[in-house]
Batch of 2 targets.
Target 1
Amino acid sequence: MAVNALATYVLLDDDDCQQRIAQAKQILGKDLVILGHHYQREEVFTHADFAGDSLKLAREAAQSQAKYIVFCGVHFMAEVADILSRPEQVSILPDLAAGCSMADMANLAKVEKAWQELNQVLNVENTVTPMTYINSAADLKAFCGRHGGVVCTSSNAKYVLDWAFERREKVLFFPDQHLGRNTGATMGIPLEDMVVWDFDKPYGGLEQPQIKQAKIILWKGFCSVHQLFQTKHIDDFLAKYPETKVISHPESSYEVCQKSDYVGSTEYIIKTIKEAPNNTRWLVGTELNLVERLAQQYKHQGKSIHFMSPTLCKCSTMFRIDPQHLLWVLEQLVEGKVVNRITVPATVAKEAKLALQRMLDIF
Ligand code: CIZ
C-alpha cells in the first residue's frame, strides 16, 4: 500500500511538493526534526531544521528530542542517527536507495579477512587500530568498536588519528584511501609509510616487509565524485584566473590536495569561503550541490565560486532524496504511518556506538 502511495508522489511537480512539505512540517511540529547534509540538492536542503556535515548532524541526532528524525542524506547517516538517538526515536531515510558508493567499497567480510591476514604478520590487537570513516556501514563501525577502534569524519580525522597513534603504532583506515593519506601526510607521515590494501588480493597485494613498515594501511576505496578532480583542472583554471584560491575536500587525490591552498571538510570549506574577503575567486573541489549553493549565497559579496571539474557531476546517491520522497515520508507520518525506518540491530548498534562515542569524546 505504501509503495502505491509513493508511486503517486513521484509524479508530483516540485512546486506542489514544497508547499505540502511545509504544511506537513507544521502539523508534525516538535515531533519532527529534518537533518540535511550539505551535499543535498537545494529543493530538499531548504527544509532542513539543521544542516551540517555528518559530524555536526550526528551530534544533532544525539541531542534531538524529536520523535521522528528524517535524514536527508544517505543510508549510513540515518544509521548513525538511529544508533545515537534514544530507542523510542525513529530514524527515517526518505529514499532507501540513497547510499554511498564509497561506503560500499568496504564490507564486513573483507575487513574481517584483512584483519586476519594482518594478524598473520603483526599482532593486530596490540599494534593496529581499526579506524573507519563515518561513510561506512554500521557493522564496520561495530567492528571498530569491538577491536578498540574508532570512527572519524573529514572534520576530525587528524584528531582521531592522533588518538589512535597514542594507543597503537599502526592504523587500518577504511574505506577512503584519500582521506587517510591526505590526513596522514598533514601529520608528517611519509607517503611510503602509507600503503594501499587492495581488498581483492591476498594480503592486500602487499609483501610482509611493506605491512611491517607501514604506519597507515589504506583501504583501496574512493569517492567517485572527488576522484574526478585532477591537477590539470587546477592548472587550467589558474592559467586563466591566476588570483584564484583553490580549496579541496580531503576525499580528493593527494596530488590535488597538494596543489590546493586549503584542504578540509565541507564545514571547513563553507567557513573558509564565508570568511574570505569580498571579490575573491574560488575553485572548489567538492560535491556540486554545495559548490552551487555557495556560489549563490556569496554572489552578492562579489565572490566568484567555481566547481573544480569541467565535467559537471553530482553524487548520484546523494541526489536520491528528492522533494517527492521527502513529502511522501512526511505525509505518511501525518497519517501516523512510519515508512522507510532505518533500524540498526541492537548488538551491532551497541558496538558501533562505542566507536562513535570514542570519536565524539575526542572531537
Ligand atoms: O563528513 C561528511 O559529512 C562528509 C561525507 C563530508 C564532509 O566533509 O562533510
Target 2
Amino acid sequence: MLRVENLVKSFDGFLAVNGANLTVHEKQIVAVIGPNGAGKTTLFNLITGHLVPTGGKVIFKDREITGMAPHRICHLGISRSFQLINVFPQLSVFENVQVSVLSHQKKVLNMFAPAQKLVVEETYNILEKVRLADKAREKTASLSYGDQKILEMAIALGNYPELLMLDEPTAGMSPEETKATIALVQELAKKEGLTVLFTEHNMNVVFEISEKIMVMQQGRTIAQDLPDMVRANKQVQAAYLGEES
Ligand code: ADP
Ligand code: MG
C-alpha cells in the first residue's frame, strides 16, 4: 500500500531524514520507532505532503505522491493525526468531525447549504466508532486530554482513509487512556479494514499491537522487521541505550 524509498529531508543542510525506507502492506499495523529526534515526525510530514522531500520517493497504491499537496494526498486516502493536538477547540465534538466529513464529500464549498443538517448520520457513525457519540454536543475544549486525542482520530476517520497515520497517539495519556486507545486502534484496523502506521514512545504499546516495526536512528532506517526480530536486533538495542522508553 505504501512504499517509502530512500527519503531525505534537509533543513538548511541538517538532514532530519537521511535515507528512510518503509513498506506497509494493506491492513497491516506498522510502528515507526526511534529515539527522540530520529526523524519520525518529519517522515510522517513527508509522507502526507506537509513537507516536501529533498530526495527519495513516496509511493501510495502504485502511484507516486512525492511532494504532492497535503489535501490531494488526503483525498487519495491517507489521513493522519498530529503529535500535538490539532482540533477546533471552540467547536463541538460533533462539529469537529462534521467538518472533516464535509470536506471529504467536498460539500464544504456549498456555502448556502444548512451545514448542520448535512452528514449528520455519517458524523454520528464515526463518533460511535470511537465511543464519543455521548459527548457529541460538548465543546471540544472541555474534553479530557485523552478524549481530544481520540477526537483527532475521529477527524481523521472523517476522510474515510485507507491508511491512517497516528503520530504518538498515546503521548501524555494516563495508563487507562493508553489502554483504551490501543484497543480502539486495533478494533478500527480490524472492523474498518484500515491500514495503520503509527509512531510511539511506549514500547509496551509498540510490541502489543505492531505486526511490523521500522526503526529510525538519526534520520535513517536501521531496521524493518517483525517485532521479535527487532527486539533481538543489536543495532536497535544500541540505538536505545541511554534513552528511556
Ligand atoms: P522525532 O519525531 O523522531 O522525535 P523529528 O522528526 O521531530 O523527530 O525531528 C528530527 C530532527 O529534525 C530533530 O533534530 C529536529 O530538531 C529537526 N527538525 C524537525 N523539524 C525541523 C524544522 N522545521 N527545521 C529544522 N529542524 C527540524
Ligand atoms: Mg515526533
